[in-house]
Design brief:
With 271 residues, the chain is an alpha/beta fold. Helix content is 37%, strand content 24%.
Length: 271
């Protein structure tokens, strides 16, 4: 089979550069195009040079439609508005779309779900193998322990991250809610300040820390009377997300249209 030709969005960002570098180092995939927003100083630059690797002969462009015409898939860690646009373009072109963007609203997700009727879309708040295994464990532990144990999800990221809780924290929260058979939207507590009163039984709490250059740390805490269980994942290198995203793209290449998760890609159950 020929190499899968991939479009990378947000090419000048940290994840965009890491994706380009990882594509250049990975068998079975090739960079078809690198996209940046209008006005970006990176426009016209060689994508390989931008990513700190050998030149690839692929200039950074602001024209997503032209880029997608000759591609087999899109790998997208951009912004919610851009991801919705790329989902629609992928649907029109009938190519795979891997979405690692976080901060998507319910309305954004509805549009992505509509696009998934015509394209294979893999969306996850985190593309790493370890985090998706953590989600599967969280679901199992939540189901086994029930509401006698309080669930708190703690996450920390670098100072530049713009959304909270992180997409990964929400993924873990969804897994915990699924394990308990409840709706996360009805049981999530995203912040506490002042006289909040006693903790309500069955709530799933979130706490977000920001600082330094932390790639990502997530803990799921099950706190009972006299004992506590903690499940934890530490991301030390952003390349784990790039490798996971490429694995997702290759998996989705010949899949029928639908909205998939990394749990589908890795075969570890719904996340």
């Amino acid at each position: 089979m020929t190499d899968m030709r991939l479009v990378v969005t947000g090419a000048a960002g940290r994840m965009g550069r890491m994706l380009i570098k990882t594509i250049a180092e990975t068998d079975g995939v090739a960079l078809a195009a690198a996209i940046e927003r209008d006005g970006s100083p990176a426009l016209g630059a060689d994508a390989g040079a931008l990513a700190g690797c050998d030149r690839l002969g692929v200039p950074v462009t602001a024209d997503p439609l032209a880029a997608i015409l000759h591609a087999d898939g899109v790998v997208d860690f951009s912004s919610p508005a851009a991801s919705v646009e790329f989902a629609a373009l992928a649907a029109q072109a009938r190519i795979a779309h891997v979405v690692g963007t976080t901060g998507l609203s319910d309305e954004d997700m509805q549009k992505i779900e509509a696009a998934a009727r015509h394209a294979a879309i893999v969306r996850s708040g985190n593309m790493s193998l370890g985090v998706n295994l953590l989600a599967a464990l969280t679901r199992q532990v939540a189901a086994a322990l029930g509401e006698d144990f309080d669930i708190e999800i703690l996450e920390m990221h670098h100072r530049m991250k713009v959304d909270a809780p992180s997409g990964t924290a929400l993924l873990l929260g969804e897994a915990a809610a699924e394990g308990r058979g409840v709706s996360l939207s009805e049981r999530a507590v995203r912040g506490r300040d002042g006289l909040t009163g006693a903790r309500r039984k069955g709530d799933i709490g979130f706490a977000a820390l920001r600082g330094g250059a932390v790639v990502g740390e997530h803990s799921v805490i099950f706190a009972g009377d006299g004992e506590r269980i903690e499940l934890r994942h530490i991301a030390e290198d952003r390349s784990i997300f790039a490798r996971g995203a490429l694995r997702a793209a290759l998996w989705a290449r010949d899949r029928k249209p639908g909205l998939y998760s990394m749990a589908d890609v890795l075969g570890v159950g719904a996340a």
